[in-house]
Each structure stands twice: as C-alpha cells, then as structure tokens.
Specification:
Length: 643
C-alpha cells in the first residue's frame, strides 16, 4: 500500500530507500550501517509523530536491529521479538519501508510482528515474556529436522521479570539447543522496572573493576576459535568464569545452562556487530547482555521514558510538543477515574492495597503509588504472581485491588480460579482495556473477559456504563461484597458523566431501566449501554418504542429485570463488547429460553474471530457494533419476527 506522499517521503532516506531486505545490509560497511541506523531512527520518529504507536522501545533497539539483520540471515534465521512493540525498525529493514506509513492503520501493517504479514516475522507477539519459549521450540524443531538455521530471542523492556522467561531458560539450558538470547537491558518496562533482578543487573555496568577486565576476557573469547591448545583455552575459560562469578550476573544465567557475555553498549554498532558475529559461531544456549537507552536519539523520550513508551501521534518532531487539536477539552479517561477514586478511598481506609504488573501509568495506579507508596506493589510482568500475591494479602485481612489489562489477566486464569475464587477471598480485579482497544489490535483487544469470568463460581462481575458507575462499582466492590469481584471498563475517555463527590453503593446484581418502552428491549452492559441508547434513538425514528436497560452485572444476573422485560416486550436484543460466546448474551438467552420461551432474543457482540487493528470507529463499523448497523439489524429482527 503506497501513495505519492509516502514515495516522496522516502526520498529523504537515501540509504533506506535502497534496502529492500536484510541481504542489502550485508553489503554495507560499519560507517554505512551507522548511517542506516540514523535514518531508521529518523523514520521511526517521523512515523510515530503522525500515526502514533510504541515509540521509546523501537528507538532503543535501532543499532541492535541493524546489527542483527547485518549478521544473521532472516528469514532463514529466526528472530523472535519479545512483546514485539520494539519491532518497527525490524519491519523497515525487512521490505516494508514503503508501507510503514500504514503502520497500525486499518487495512495497513500491524503494530506488532505478524507471521501472516512477512516471512521475516518469525512469531506473532504482543504479550511479554514469550520469546525464549518460542525460540526454544523453534530450535528444538530445527534440531529434530536436522536443519542448521540460527534462532535469536530479543527480550527486554521488563519482560525478563516474567516467570515464563525463566521457565524457558531453565528448559533450554537442559536441552542445550543453540539459541541466542539478547537481553536488551534498559531498566524499563512502561515505567521503571522493579525487583531483585533489576537491582542485580543495574550494578554491573557501573563496576569499574569489571569494566577493566571485561575487554581482556572478551578479546580472549575470539581466540578460542583459533588454533590454541587445550591448556590455553581452559585458562581463558577459567579466567572468564572467575570474573563473571565475581562481578556479573553471568553466574546466575550460567547456572541455568547459558554462556553469558556482556554487558556491552547496545548503541555501539562496532561492538554489536562484533559480538553478534561471535555469538553466531558459538553453539549451545548463550545470552548477550546489552545496555540501551529507551527513547535513544529523541531527547523528550530519553528525558521522560514512561510518557514516551507510546504516543498517540500528533507531535512536533523537533520539540516533542503536541500539535494543536480541535480545542475541545478532553474528557477524563476511565483509568484516571478509577485511579483517583481508589486513592480517595484508600486515604480513608488503611486496609486497601494496590497491585500492578508493571503497569502503574497504564492503569493510573501511579496516582496511588505517589499518594500511598507503602501500600503500592509493582510485581513486574508477573500476572500469575500478582493474583496469588493479592490472595495472600486478602487472607491477611487487607483489601487488595489488582489493576490489570483484560488481555493480561488471561495469563493468570488458573490463579484467579484456584487461589482466589475457590477460597472466596476478597480480591478486587480492576480490568482495564476491556473490549476493543483500536490500533493495538488483536493481541490487546479485551474480547474474552466476560466469557472467561462468567464461568467462575463465587465471582461477582460488573461493568459500568459511565464514569460515575465506575466509582460506585469500586465502592461496592470494596464495601458491599466479601468475595472476589471483577469490574471491567474500557480504554480511553468516558461519556462525560457528571461525577458526584460522594460514593453510592449499588444493589448487588441489579440493573436499571434507562429508557421506558414496550416494543423491544435493548440490554446493554458497559460501553454498549450508551450505544444501546444511541441505537434506540434511531429505532424510535423508525416508529419503534425501544426499552433500554443497563444490566450493570453479568454475575449475578438480574433475573428480576429480565422477568419484567419479558412481561413487557416480546423481543430482546443484547448488546455487549465481548465475544458472542459465553458473555452476557449467553446468560440472557439461557435464562429467557428456560423461563420465557415465547420471547424472541437476538445477540450482538464481538465475532468469534480475532478482530483486526484500526480506529475504534472503523472496527465498530466492520463488526456491526456501530449504532446505524445495530439499528438496521435490530429493526430487521423485529419486523421479521412479529410477536
């Protein structure tokens, strides 16, 4: 997908415009590689300033990406990018330069690696800590098939705090397959990394004694491929091992079966190329530790790495200042309403604690972190641990609130069932990014939480239709319930509801009627409540008289309201921003079929498919959840089945 504007822009990149794949990089010398890196960095800044996207991470791996594709032979050699939000330069260098202006746009390139998009994308990624496991599997397949390709896993941005990464290394060290793990150490996830591993790694580059000895050992490694005698080789290895044990985390990684090398400057092209060439020739599992700066080359991003982890676009590439918009005041985001409400309550209640899995700013728990640091816990990218840690806090008499993205909670489903719900512990799950999330696409759409939560006993599940309901639901979850509670809410801004200063408890398992009517009832939950009202307006213009209900609770389901609806309306349409399988619609259909078999029910939600990336308006239109599409389909349903 090219256009004249994109073609003219490419003329500003004399080297990149001639690179159609990694093979073209192999012809270049060191100075030319450095010039390519500079053009890549410029192009990423330009792209994100227009389209938005993940920013600081891609800027931090420019030299690494250029060096990898110079040394390795993609797509024969397999390069797996953990999370994948740092792969923009990888896409630029693998034949997609002319299409990068479509990145994250509807019908354009995905914002993450995607196997169906390019043979150079070895594995679909979007969640953290998966790369080493995938690489180990690829290496095992290679070994079983007798092939000779190389396999590389690039992991960083806090992903090494995820337990899955260590599970993979433990296994890889046992099977001893030839895999290179590049640890891109920038001391950051979205916000600064936390935990013992971070503290372990951060001291290494600062150790002067180690840095004086490192060059000698590193130079000695290259001698091992020459005709040295066994005695000399063993001496170098012993010296290397002794220095690592004394000054580096090498002892830790080597205990898992890896050869450890580094740390080296990840922005020094000469060092990177030399190191990767050495790594490519060495068999067995090895880990190359590189030190990088998130946001490298764009001063605003270097100065405020959390803010510039990602950008919505629309900023000046020289200053980083946001460009002028329509001038309309922006509405508060749901996550901000949640974060502020939690702080209000916790300042009065010393038993409330807040937990995040490396997402304090992404969930607005940074407000809690700043206000009450003693009761704030960032466990790193470790959702499984976060849930069971919350269970322990609850068992100890506290009220833990775990704020987590919908798709990330998927990673801790067993802990939710076994460690929280089974014991009836009072843990509150604040589930952010529920429903579609726009340009981040299928790896981040919260499509399934109502479905997978619906099946869990002892769990109360609710979703607010506006910002005030979110505040009241949080209060209800903390003070009107004793067992596990889940509140799911969307990404982005609310409806502009006027917020009350005081909190009001909600009656458990009770919805509300927002619009009286008698011909057909529209039942919405969460984001689809406002959509149901909008749709009702369109249907009313066609002569129908729709009733609109905000169900509020998925579990317990308001069967009393359903009985009332069935007594007044012969037709019911359920609208939810969740998979059509297993959510609110499934519960309503099951109940009405059993108790009111004469009522006709139709159901609208996310399709039984992975929804692509694009703007919210484009995605709603594609799947038929925009108001005009809903009005047309509901009107046809009513007219086709008179009752």
């Amino acid at each position: 997908m090219t256009d004249p504007t994109a073609t003219s822009q490419l003329q500003a990149y004399p080297l990149l415009s001639k690179i159609h794949g990694p093979a073209d990089l192999k012809k270049l010398g060191l100075k030319e590689l450095e010039a390519v890196a500079a053009e890549c960095r410029k192009r990423v800044i330009e792209l994100v300033s227009m389209n938005g996207g993940h920013f600081g991470s891609s800027l931090g791996v420019v030299e690494l990406t250029v060096a990898l594709h110079h040394v390795y032979e993609s797509p024969k050699d397999r390069i797996v990018w953990d999370v994948g939000h740092q792969a923009y330069v990888h896409k630029i260098l693998t034949g997609r330069m002319s299409e990068m202006h479509t990145n994250r746009q509807y019908g354009g390139l995905a914002g993450f690696p995607k196997r169906g998009e390019s043979p150079h994308d070895a594995f679909d990624t979007g969640h953290a800590s998966t790369s080493i496991s995938a690489a180990a599997g690829m290496a095992a397949a290679r070994d079983l098939a007798g092939r000779d390709e190389k396999v590389v896993a690039v992991i960083g941005d806090g992903s090494m705090t995820g337990g899955m990464a260590f599970e993979a290394m433990n296994h890889l060290g046992d099977i001893k397959s030839d895999v290179l793990v590049v640890l891109n150490d920038n001391q950051m996830a979205i916000s600064p990394s936390t935990g013992g591993l971070k503290n372990y790694l951060v001291n290494i580059p600062l150790n002067k004694t180690y840095n004086r000895l490192r060059k000698f050992v590193w130079d000695s490694i290259s001698l091992l491929n020459n005709d040295l005698g066994d005695t000399a080789k063993n001496a170098v290895h012993r010296l290397e091992d002794g220095i690592k044990a004394a000054f580096t985390p090498g002892a830790f990684f080597e205990a898992l079966g890896f050869r450890y090398f580094g740390p080296i400057d990840g922005h020094d092209m000469e060092q990177m190329v030399k190191a990767l060439r050495e790594m490519r020739s060495l068999p067995h599992p090895k880990l190359l530790h590189i030190i990088t700066t998130k946001g490298k080359g764009f001063k605003p991003a270097e100065d405020n790495q959390s803010k510039w982890h990602a950008s919505a676009g629309g900023f000046d590439i020289d200053t980083g200042k946001a460009l002028q918009t329509s001038g309309k005041p922006s509405l508060p985001k749901y996550q901000e309403v949640f974060g502020e409400a939690l702080v209000e309550l916790a300042l009065k209640d010393r038993t409330i604690a807040a937990i995040t899995a490396a997402m304090p700013s992404g969930t607005s728990l940074d407000l809690f972190q700043n206000a009450i640091p003693s009761r704030f816990y960032d466990v790193g990218i470790a959702e499984q641990h976060a849930v069971t840690f919350a269970a322990g806090l609850a068992a100890g008499g506290f009220k833990p609130v775990f704020a987590v993205y919908s798709t990330f909670l998927q990673r801790a489903y067993d802990q939710l069932i076994h460690d929280v719900a089974l014991q009836g512990l009072h843990v509150v799950f604040a589930i952010d990014r529920a429903g579609l999330v726009g340009e981040d696409g299928p790896t981040h759409h919260g499509s399934f939480d109502l479905s997978f939560l619906h099946a869990v006993p002892n769990l109360t599940v609710m979703a607010p239709g506006d910002e005030q309901e979110l505040r009241d639901m949080l209060y209800t979850a903390l003070y009107e319930l004793n067992g596990p509670v889940a509140i799911r809410y969307p990404r982005g801004s609310g409806n502009g509801a006027v917020l009350r200063k005081e909190f009001a408890p909600l009656p458990i398992g009770k919805g509300r009627v927002l619009r009286e009517g008698g011909s057909i009832a529209l039942l919405g939950i969460g984001t689809m409540v406002s959509r149901a009202l909008e749709t009702a307006g369109l249907l009313a213009a066609e002569g129908l008289d729709p009733m609109v209900c905000d169900m509020r609770f998925l579990k317990p389901l308001d069967t009393g309201l359903l009985d009332d609806v069935a007594s007044r309306c012969g037709h019911v349409a359920v609208i939810e921003e969740n998979s059509v399988i297993g959510g609110l619609g499934s519960g309503v259909v099951e109940y009405l079929h059993r108790t009111h078999p004469g009522v006709r029910v139709t159901h609208f939600g996310l399709p039984d498919a992975f929804v692509t990336h694009g703007s919210m308006a484009e995605l709603y239109r594609e799947i038929g959840l925009d108001a005009p599409s809903l009005a047309e389909k509901i009107g046809n349903f009513y007219r086709a089945t008179p009752g």
